[in-house]
């Protein structure tokens, strides 16, 4: 029984973390768009780096598998 509870809690935590990453993904895409509009190369590079990190984290969680 304890193992089932543990698995359910882990699943809930993963879902919450996935949702947080998806929200951060949306925010970062908006930031990238703004940086592209302003031609801010430094911010574009930073946003692209963070987007790649988010993608890797989501892949680890098998969200897009």
UniProtKB/TrEMBL annotation:
<protein>
    <submittedName>
        <fullName>Uncharacterized protein</fullName>
    </submittedName>
</protein>
